[in-house]
Amino acid sequence: MLASGRTHQGTAVRLDLAYDGTAFSGWAKQPGRRTVQGEVERALGIFLRHPVIVRVAGRTDAGVHAAGQVASFVTGARVVPERLRLGLNALLPEDVAVSAVTCVPEGFDARAAVARTYRYRLWLASERPALERHFVWHVHGRVDTEVLVASAAVFTGRRDWRALTPSAHLYRDCTREVLAATWRPAAVIEGCGEEWVFEVTARSFLHMMVRVMVGSMVEVALGRLTLDDIAAALTCGERRRMGRTAPARGLMLMRVAYGG
Q: How confident is the model at residue 2 (pLDDT cuts 50, 70, 90)?
């Protein structure tokens, strides 16, 4: 079975991935550090018998997870998608899995997504999350969930979001369009509280943008900041005036969408 995207330059391939980011120093390769990109490229190199460089939809930070990450690469090797999926899963460590392999048209680039959706899980309970500790932020104190829900509206629309990143100096332009941002209750934690989930969708995000959003909304819901404080910080563009950065462990890349 030859790949449908095969050309004289090679076959373009899409990988759909999931991973537990707990033990990784993020997606991007770094010398001397364990990264998701490093593991995926290592496995691809072994299976395809040539070095491979992958492109990715979202360069997640250390400790951040993914349920719906997308990566792409080009190979001159013959590709049988299901055989490649099985082979990669045999070669990858247990905290990374390939859910699908697809041969795609020439020119497909995982980076060229039209939308990315992240989810953040908040554990509002007296009992610590022993089994979920790598995937939720356990917040101590009384969180006003009505205020939490209302605060999400501040973080929608198209504007300069430089106040939501510590790395604004690295961007030519910090303008992004946030398409949707909502909080919802996800589960009742028997006898001791609730789990709440924040979902946010945008074409692209700034470094740590979602985590600063979440940290700031939680501080408003705890009564440490007001919505007016957040609005003023966004207007002046100063990171120091926003709330804390929420821990990486509660964040997960859920979905990536492409046009056409």
A: very low
